[in-house]
Write a structure and sequence with these properties.
Elements: H1 26-29, H2 36-56, H3 63-70, H4 74-81, H5 84-105, H6 116-133, H7 135-140, H8 152-168, H9 174-184, H10 187-196, H11 201-216
Helix pairs in contact: 2-3, 3-4, 4-5, 6-8, 6-11, 8-9
């Protein structure tokens, strides 16, 4: 079973040296110190999978195709990654750790040091840009319905958003509100809006900023309608 994500500080606790979550797979959690040859084999398989994504797209990444590309048996791929989702998740691991480092300890407004509403705006826009850059891979690695909301990476993202909401709107039900806001950043929705509807990413970023401002009450006050005659 995958390890639970690291605990997040309350709004009163500064994040000085955040610990980054490593996505990995259930199999890796049982082998915290991979042997040198196993680590080399894993890197070789990920390089093969990365070439397939670059040359043919994420849909071409199957356990069989990666085994053939890396010139190993199919069982080797299954033993290292468990299943196709585990393999694709491992491909996203490096990007995920860089993103975590940015919002947990990087410069503001994405990282600590900016007001919570500014960090919420920056967090959502950064997630949208990242999804647009890695859309095929993120969609292919999307867990099934029973695992989607307990996947370690998603839990870290949602907990971070909940922490910022607790600072910005402490009177709200920030746990459920964070789930609702995460829906606006879902890769499947980004795919629908940008690829199927043809909307520019900039429009999604503006809509995210507007949503954050409305939820936190920091946008321009609405005009008072004239009294009904």
């Amino acid at each position: 079973m995958s390890a639970a994500p690291p605990p997040f500080p309350t709004p009163q606790e500064p994040v000085d040296h955040p610990e980054l979550l490593q996505l990995g797979t259930a199999l890796e959690d049982d082998e915290p110190c991979l042997r040198a040859d196993a680590a080399r084999n894993r890197a070789r398989l990920l390089e093969a999978a990365g070439r397939l994504v670059a040359e043919r797209g994420a849909e071409a990444v199957t356990m069989e195709a990666v085994a053939a590309e890396a010139c190993v048996g199919k069982g080797t791929v299954f033993r290292r990654f468990g299943d196709r989702t585990g393999l694709l998740t491992a491909l996203l691991d490096h990007s995920e750790k860089k993103f975590q480092a940015a919002f947990l300890g990087g410069p503001p407004p994405l990282g600590p040091g900016a007001p919570p509403v500014e960090r919420l705006r920056a967090f959502g826009c950064a997630m949208l840009r990242r999804s647009a850059d890695e859309l095929e891979l993120q969609l292919a690695a999307e867990p099934g319905a029973s695992r989607r909301y307990v996947a370690p990476a998603r839990r870290v993202l949602r907990h971070h958003m909940e922490m910022l909401l607790r600072q910005a709107v402490p009177e709200a039900d920030c746990e459920l509100l964070s789930h609702a806001l995460m829906g606006q950043l879902d890769p499947a929705l980004v795919h629908h809006l940008t690829r199927q509807r043809g909307l520019p990413l900039s429009r999604l970023e503006v809509a995210w900023t507007d949503l954050v401002d409305r939820v936190t009450g920091t946008g321009a006050p609405a005009e008072t309608p004239p009294p009904h005659p």
